[in-house]
Amino acid sequence: MKELCDFLREKRQLLFFLLFFEGSLCLIYGLYGLPWGPAGYTCLVTAVVTLGFLMAGFFRWERKRRQLLILKRQAEQSLETADLPKAETPLEKIYQEIIQDQEKRCQREQKESREKLVRSREYYTRWSHQIKTPIAAMELLLQEEPADVRALKRELLKTSQYVEMALSYQRMEGDGNDLVIQRYELRPVVMQAVKKVSPLLIHKHISFSAGDLSGEVLTDEKWLVFVLEQLLTNASKYTKEGGSVRIGKENGLLVLRDTGIGIRPEDLPRIFEWGYTGYNGRLDKRSTGVGLALVKQVMEMLGNKMEIRSVLGEGTEVFLDLRRTELEAE
Hints:
Layout: H1 2-10, H2 12-31, H3 36-74, H4 90-143, H5 149-173, E1 182-185, H6 186-203, E2 207-210, E3 216-219, H7 221-237, E4 244-250, E5 253-258, H8 278-284, H9 291-301, E6 305-311, E7 315-321, H10 326-329
Parallel strand pairs: 2-4
Antiparallel strand pairs: 1-3, 4-5, 5-7, 6-7
């Protein structure tokens, strides 16, 4: 009974029109004093035909309602829009198109979530193996008498960098970017990163020089220091003892140049891919393939561009375009 009431409620406009039509017909016949026979016959035929349409419509409506109830129960597990009843009106078709668009969006988000989960698992698996190395090295150094304090500081720095990398990775994956865009003097920001990485440079006797670092940059200090620290760490890692690293402004760009082993031409197009280690990363065996990908993502988040050029056996150049206007920051 409830289903019938719901159906009639949907068709109330048709029922009101039928009552209005038959009432108007009877009123006209009454005003003009016409015989009631034709009017009664017309009203009866109209009512019977309308009732037939309503009955047929009710059975179709009830069948569709049951299909939708079944789909509703199935939707708790999964729902394919192909299972929806065939649209009988243009309005129903629009509703189904909306549902299909939402389904595509959900599938896209699910795919992205799965990819992110797989990427996170791979990263933290590699990270857990990666961080064991400096920890094991510190344990061995502590067994020596007296302990090599400089070596301990280097291994502690590596551990700190791995932890900072994991925290930054987590913030980026969780969209918790917590940006604070302000104007900063470029030199102090660069020197923060250099100071953190200096034990690695000193240990390998890598000479460091700073060129023109004058002027201000509109950026987030914490994230820019993170970018520079990662790039300087890579430079120290892949530059042999006695090499050199230089950083400074050239033609409006901040350029980091080293005399390291360089990057193979076939690896250059893919160095910003998540999890891609390349030939150099395979040599290191502990590389996660996340560092440069994360750096690239941070630069995009800051609204800046970067480019890497390299010649195998000669060195690598990293170009950071830190030019940004106040309007873009807002």
